[in-house]
């Protein structure tokens, strides 16, 4: 999975897709990344952060880094923060950018780009996506151990571990619950699953786990974001797809993609979806207007 491309490219490609009842237009495509896993828009600074695994997702090689790019797809700083291992999920709270990095949670000052602190996640193997609640508590999924960790009062600890989480990946806070986009059940050595994942929810108060909608399998789910209209945008990493999932759990294919569509970001007030294409070493932006 290691990328060798060193040239940053930027192209405007007016491609149109019509899948199910929806249409999407590709706004831009930026390449030169190294296995980009997550994209996050910072509205206060009007920039996009991109995590680069830059190698195998479990290698502690110090080769991972964070990039910054403009909202129109121009890369501003390819290696803005370096020295990470295999950074994946991103979430921001105030002036801190939190990054999951295999078995650590890392915080970065968004003004300076300096690493502020890191926390070890005991027994974690594959930390992935992040979410932050209204109190600033950070939740991070560990896909391989069916676990959710929580950073609270400057302490990172195991919050929930349950097979019902179905190898959790994408996370989002939705009122009094934590929504999860799982990879699926019965994970195999090649990262395939015998049963595809579907959205589940965890009550933040009592940690009870429930199915969103019918529980019909959707895919090997990765990124999870609100579309700003009460639905959820979810990527399928293995099949290469972008879905819109309604509150009742019904999933519609919005866009067919290459394998490696990872942890998406959104600019909701402009109906823009940011898609890191991990195997293609690029980030694409689409609009659903």
What does this structure look like?
This protein is an all-beta fold and 289 residues long. It is built from no helices and 28 strands. The chain has strands at residues 9-11, 16-19, 22-31, 36-42, 47-52, 64-70, 75-84, 87-93, 96-101, 104-109, 115-120, 127-132, 138-142, 147-152, 155-161, 168-174, 177-182, 184-187, 193-196, 200-203, 209-211, 221-226, 232-236, 241-245, 251-256, 265-267, 272-277, 282-287. The relative contact order is 0.15.
Supply the key terms:
single chain, 289 residues, 0% helix, 4-stranded antiparallel β-sheet, 6-stranded antiparallel β-sheet, 28 strands, mainly beta, disordered N terminus, 56% strand
Short structural description:
It is built from no helices and 28 strands.
Q: Overall mean pLDDT score?
A: 91
Largest sheet: 6 strands, antiparallel
**Approximately how much beta-strand content do the residues carry?**
over 45%
Assign the structural class, choosing from mainly alpha, mainly beta, alpha/beta, alpha+beta, or little secondary structure. mainly beta
Number of strands: 28
Element string (H = helix, E = strand): EEEEEEEEEEEEEEEEEEEEEEEEEEEE
Uncertain residue segments = 1-21
What is the rounded distance between the termini?
34 Å
How many helices in DSSP terms?
0
Rg on CA atoms, Å: 17 Å
Shape: globular
Helix percent band: under 10%
Describe the SSE topology.
Elements: E1 9-11, E2 16-19, E3 22-31, E4 36-42, E5 47-52, E6 64-70, E7 75-84, E8 87-93, E9 96-101, E10 104-109, E11 115-120, E12 127-132, E13 138-142, E14 147-152, E15 155-161, E16 168-174, E17 177-182, E18 184-187, E19 193-196, E20 200-203, E21 209-211, E22 221-226, E23 232-236, E24 241-245, E25 251-256, E26 265-267, E27 272-277, E28 282-287
Antiparallel strand pairs: 1-3, 2-3, 3-28, 4-5, 5-6, 6-7, 8-9, 9-10, 10-11, 12-13, 13-14, 14-15, 16-17, 17-20, 18-19, 20-21, 22-23, 23-24, 24-25, 26-27, 27-28
């Amino acid at each position: 999975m290691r990328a060798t491309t060193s040239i940053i490219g930027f192209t405007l490609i007016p491609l149109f897709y019509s899948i199910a009842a929806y249409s999407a237009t590709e706004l831009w495509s930026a390449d030169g990344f190294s296995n980009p896993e997550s994209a996050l828009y910072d509205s206060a600074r009007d920039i996009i952060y991109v995590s680069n695994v830059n190698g195998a997702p479990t290698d502690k090689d110090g080769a991972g880094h964070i990039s910054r790019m403009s909202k129109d797809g121009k890369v501003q700083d390819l290696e803005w923060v370096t020295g990470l291992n295999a950074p994946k999920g991103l979430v921001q709270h105030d002036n801190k950018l939190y990054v999951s990095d295999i078995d650590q949670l890392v915080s970065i000052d968004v003004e300076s780009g300096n690493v502020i602190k890191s926390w070890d996640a005991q027994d974690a193997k594959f930390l992935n996506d992040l979410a932050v609640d209204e109190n600033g508590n950070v939740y991070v999924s560990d896909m391989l151990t069916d676990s959710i960790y929580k950073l609270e009062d400057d302490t990172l600890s195991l919050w929930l571990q349950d097979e019902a989480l179905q190898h959790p990946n994408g996370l989002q806070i939705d009122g009094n619950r934590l929504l999860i986009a799982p990879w699926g059940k019965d994970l195999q050595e090649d990262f395939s699953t015998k049963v595809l994942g579907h959205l589940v929810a965890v009550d933040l108060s009592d940690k009870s786990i429930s199915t969103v909608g019918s529980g019909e399998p959707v895919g090997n789910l990765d990124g999870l974001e609100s579309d700003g209209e009460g639905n959820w945008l979810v990527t399928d990493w293995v099949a290469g797809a972008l879905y819109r999932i309604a509150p009742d759990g019904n999933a519609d294919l919005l866009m067919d993609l290459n394998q490696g569509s990872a942890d998406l970001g959104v600019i909701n007030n402009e109906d823009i979806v940011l898609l890191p294409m991990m195997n293609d070493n690029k980030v694409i932006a689409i609009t659903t207007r």
